[in-house]
Design a protein that fits this description.
Structural class: alpha+beta
Shape: globular
Oligomer: single chain
Order of helices and strands: HEEEEEE
Radius of gyration: 16 Å
Number of helices: 1
Length: 90
C-alpha cells in the first residue's frame, strides 16, 4: 500500500515537472485571460496572460467561434515549440 501511495505522488510530481497538471490530447494546457489581439502578426493571434506564467501569443480560428474580447477566459495548449493555441473557453 505504501508503494501505491509513493507511486501516485511520483506521477503527480512528474506531471507538474513536465509543465502542468492539465492535458488535452497529450498537450500541455494552461488557463489564461485574453489581453487583446496581437497586432504585429496575423489577425488570428491573441496575447494571453497565462495564470501561471508570462504572456503567450496564441492562435485562434475565428471559424471556431466569435472574435475574442479582452478579459475572455480561455484554455491554451502548447502545440509546438513555443506555439500556443486557444482550445477552450472557460
Amino acid at each position: 500500500m505504501a508503494d501505491d501511495k509513493n507511486m501516485e505522488l511520483s506521477d503527480e510530481m512528474m506531471r507538474k515537472a513536465a509543465g502542468g497538471e492539465d492535458d488535452l490530447d497529450g498537450y500541455r494546457t494552461e488557463p489564461g485571460t485574453v489581453v487583446g489581439p496581437f497586432e504585429h502578426y496575423e489577425n488570428n493571434r491573441y496575447v494571453v496572460k497565462r495564470d501561471a506564467g508570462p504572456e503567450a501569443i496564441a492562435s485562434y480560428s475565428p471559424s471556431a467561434g466569435p472574435l475574442l474580447e479582452p478579459g475572455t477566459r480561455v484554455m491554451i495548449a502548447l502545440v509546438g515549440q513555443g506555439k500556443w493555441e486557444i482550445v477552450e473557453f472557460l
